[in-house]
Amino acid sequence: MKKSLLSKQVIQNFFEGKTTQMQNILIQEWLENPAHRELYFQWLDEWELENPQFTPDVEQGYQRSLYTVQDGGGIPMSPRANAGTLRGRLFAFKWAAAASVALLVGAYLLSDFWLYKQYETGYGEIRTVVLPDSSRVTLNANSVLSIPRFGFGNGAREVRLKGEAEFAVKHTVDHSKFIVRTPDKLEVKVLGTEFIVYSRERGSKVVLSQGSVQLRSLNEVNARPMLMKPGDVATMSMQGRLTLKHSVSLSAHQAWKQRLFMFENTPVSEIAYQISEHFGVNVVVADSTLARRTIGGTFNASDPANVLKVLSDVLNARVTHTPPGGHGAETFVLDSNRL
């Protein structure tokens, strides 16, 4: 029943305030699915093209939807007599639809949902995205890129990253800046260049292959920008402290794009951490001496079991595998191969 009612025409009727109360409830349930929300915005874009007299005011509409949620009142599903022009009525109808989403996900989540489009990768997945300005972003596994739904490229181009990604930024004729922001308040600012940004729980990292980059830690008051040149690698600790290294070999930092792990005198404990964050599995190094050993080499990153099998052969160690079950994640234990 829901599938037959929630056709494209029904959603467009919703934009125009022509749906019934029952249809509004079904639409709210339908929007709980992320794939449906993306379809919702696709149909909304098409509807706006067919109604060119409507010009969205994102901030005003967003604040209006927040007021609706905080006030506890109902969602306005029909035009008001004092709406005036057709443009005003269309504005009211569209933001009524946005308010429906607000009631589903809450005022805080609405901000990201309505204002930002998200590109995500699962564990073990790599994905390339072309942005509206023709910049290219390649996402590593377990990463999220958020870009503004409205106004991207009008002035500064700002995106958010959680995880790891390589950016190939397109230089624009108006020299507009491209800014990457991370959850731990690292700001990466460029005009046109190629670089990698890593941002996870243990800190952030920027690897510059071409062009120039300006970094700033927003954790510090009046922080001075740090300039990077090709071959530089900058890291930011969990305390917000930036460190810059020059003339670094970048191959190990870029290997993930070819679905490879490349290690250069890397401790086994660090290798275990990288496998865990890439595949979403637990990797435990049970022997402290084994954890401190370092190795180098290139490993295929297609499957955690295969990586650890090769690693155990190199280290003359053994691997114990526990499949996922109940609330426990898949676990691999690497231990010395004592006789």
TrEMBL record:
Residue stretches spanning the membrane: 95-116
Domain FecR protein: 118-214
Organism domain of life: Bacteria
Domain Protein FecR C-terminal: 261-318
Coiled coil: none
Keywords tagged on the record: Membrane, Transmembrane, Transmembrane helix
One Gene Ontology term of the molecular function aspect: sigma factor antagonist activity
InterPro entries, per the entry: FecR (IPR006860), FecR_C (IPR032508), Ferrdict_sens_TM (IPR012373)
UniProt xrefs under Pfam families: FecR, FecR_C
The keyword Metal-binding appears for this protein: no
Protein name according to UniProt: FecR family protein
